[in-house]
Design brief:
Helix content: 25-40%
Largest sheet: 6 strands, parallel
Shape: globular
Low-confidence stretches: 1-5
Radius of gyration: 17 Å
Mean pLDDT: 83
Order of helices and strands: HHEHHEHEEEEEHHHEH
Distance between the termini: 42 Å
Strand order of the largest sheet: 1-2-3-4-5-8
Length: 260
């Protein structure tokens, strides 16, 4: 894309590298940068109104955003997000202005129909630049994330920092949850997977799986998602897999009123 060619740090390719390394290949993901509010809402509207072209997108992940959106831009996001949040899982990077304000959450991440993802470091502490707000749902790795992107300019570019990279880590994490939920021989079903492809339902599953923060002032709503430490994805351990399936069913019942 023109954006990718002008992106000196290969931002988009690095995000793709995260999905390739950590995601589940059968889950349909769509990722884009919200560098301009009007173009971002145009992209979301296009997805919402062109199901035949785009298909059923499981996870939509957004990076960047606006800290001072106009009323029209807020309304534009609101319309598109409300159309998509019940048929896709919407994720957005919280933003990297946490050192400037106690409530520095960007739009679209600040929208209640979107799962807002901040970044934590190797010790599990919130990265200082990551946005601080109780409306940040979860923290994912956002410091020295390895991407193995193909067109990076130096070995140092393989390791990236920021909530733009924490958000796809969350997306990759959720892609595994969806895949397991849809697998019949693991106790899931296609109906469970479809019911879980819903922003509020997935937020509830992750809420049950995350680690609570013990640091006062971390400014997050639920806690930390630690993809590399979740042996619940060990498919050889039937007890842990069943626990995950139960999390999924409970989340669907709580958020959608469906008992599966």
């Amino acid at each position: 894309s023109p954006y990718q060619r002008s992106d000196a740090k290969s931002h988009g390719t690095q995000i793709a590298g995260i999905y390739v390394m950590y995601g589940y290949p059968d889950i349909l993901l769509y990722d884009f940068a919200c560098t301009h509010c009007d173009k971002a809402t145009e992209a979301l509207e296009c997805i919402a109104t062109n199901k035949e072209e785009f298909g059923d997108i499981d996870i939509i992940s957004m990076s960047f955003g606006s800290d001072r959106p106009t009323e029209d831009q807020v309304d534009g996001y609101d319309k598109c997000i409300n159309e998509l949040k019940n048929s896709s899982i919407l994720i957005a990077a919280a933003g990297n202005f946490g050192n400037r304000s106690d409530d520095s959450l960007l739009l679209p991440a600040r929208h209640p129909g979107v799962i807002a993802v901040g970044g934590h470091d190797d010790l599990g502490h919130k990265v200082p630049d990551s946005a601080s707000s109780p409306d940040v749902d979860f923290l994912c790795p956002g410091f020295q994330v390895c991407t193995f992107a193909d067109d990076v300019h130096s070995p140092n570019d393989m390791f990236v920092n920021g909530t733009s990279f924490a958000a796809p880590m969350a997306g990759a994490f959720m892609s595994h949850i969806l895949a397991i939920a849809g697998c019949q021989h693991l106790g899931g079903s296609e109906e469970l997977r479809r019911s879980l492809t819903h922003t509020d339902a997935m937020r509830e599953v992750c809420r049950q799986m995350c680690e609570r923060s013990v640091r006062v002032g971390d400014g997050i709503g639920y806690g930390k998602l630690l993809p590399n430490k979740h042996d619940v994805f060990d498919l050889q351990d039937t007890r842990k897999v069943q626990t995950l399936i139960n999390f999924c069913k409970n989340a669907v019942e709580k958020t959608r009123g469906k008992k599966l």
